[in-house]
Design goal:
By secondary structure, this protein is α+β, with helices and mostly antiparallel strands. The chain is 61% helix and 12% strand. It has a two-stranded antiparallel sheet with strand order 1-2. Pfam families: ZapA.
Length: 114
């Protein structure tokens, strides 16, 4: 069992993998790190756990889309054209979403204290 230290979101994480899979693991970690960098560039200001969650949700969404396309191809159906690339984020919208997220976190923290 190989041991690789990957850097994601500015933090180092030791991760075990099968021998010979080190490069694959490093590439996957780089993809997660790229997504976290994109979220940060959009103005997202969350802790490590929240950023990892958002990146994981993005990856899970893409995986579900790809699985649906594969199932459609296996069934002999047509596959919808891929969605166009998203437009550049609206800074005002990002700021408003950050405000909503902070309000939700404040409410969640108050509920946990209660």
């Amino acid at each position: 069992m190989a041991q690789v230290t990957v850097r994601v979101g500015g933090y180092s994480h030791p991760v075990a993998c099968q021998d010979g899979q080190e490069r694959h693991l490093t590439n996957m970690a780089a993809e997660v790190d790229r997504r976290i960098g994109t979220l940060k560039a959009m103005g997202m200001q969350f802790g490590e756990t929240r950023m990892l969650l958002l990146a994981a949700l993005q990856l899970a969404d893409e995986t579900a889309d790809l699985q649906a396309e594969i199932a459609a191809l296996k069934a002999g159906g047509a596959v919808a054209a891929p969605a166009p690339a998203p437009a550049a984020p609206d800074p005002e919208l990002v700021e408003r979403l950050n405000g909503v997220a902070e309000a939700i976190e404040t409410i969640a923290a108050a509920l946990e204290r209660a």
